[in-house]
């Protein structure tokens, strides 16, 4: 398990989405539909896909749900 690196902006916590690398607020759903859940966000959490599946789907241009 690797923890996401948290970036503070104006008192809010952000991380780089592990799927698409966009900067996204912690505990927010990314534009790529990956739901970020803080330190454990790379494990899948509430996402239906695992992170690895999501990364593969994103790389192929498929949607992540
Ligand atoms: Zn994303």
Characterization of this structure:
With 65 residues, this protein is α+β, with helices and mostly antiparallel strands. The chain has one domain. It has one helix at 51-59, and strands spanning 7-9, 12-16, 23-25. It has a three-stranded antiparallel β-sheet with strand order 1-2-3, with no helix packed on it. Strand 2 and strand 3 form a beta hairpin. It starts with 6 loop residues before the first strand and ends in a 6-residue tail after the last helix. The model has no long low-confidence stretch (mean pLDDT 84). The site of zinc ion (ZN) has 8 residues, from loops.
Model regions low in confidence, pLDDT < 50 over at least 5 residues: none
**Secondary structure: number of strands:** 3
* Helical segment count: 1
Largest sheet: 3 strands, antiparallel
Task: Name the bound molecules.
Answer: zinc ion
CA-based shape: elongated
Distance between the termini: 22 Å
Strand order of the largest sheet: 1-2-3
Structural class, judged by helices and strands? alpha+beta
How many structural domains does the protein architecture include? 1
Sequence of secondary-structure elements: EEEH
Strand content: 15-25%
Helix content: 10-25%
CA gyration radius, whole angstroms: 11 Å
Rounded average pLDDT: 84
Protein name: Cysteine-rich CPCC domain-containing protein
Organism: Ligilactobacillus agilis DSM 20509
């Amino acid at each position: 398990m690797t923890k996401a690196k948290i970036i503070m902006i104006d008192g809010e916590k952000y991380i780089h989405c592990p799927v698409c690398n966009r900067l996204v607020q912690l505990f927010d759903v990314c534009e790529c539909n990956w739901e970020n859940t803080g330190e454990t966000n790379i494990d899948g959490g509430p996402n239906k896909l695992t992170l690895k599946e999501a990364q593969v789907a994103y790389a192929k241009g498929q949607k992540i749900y």
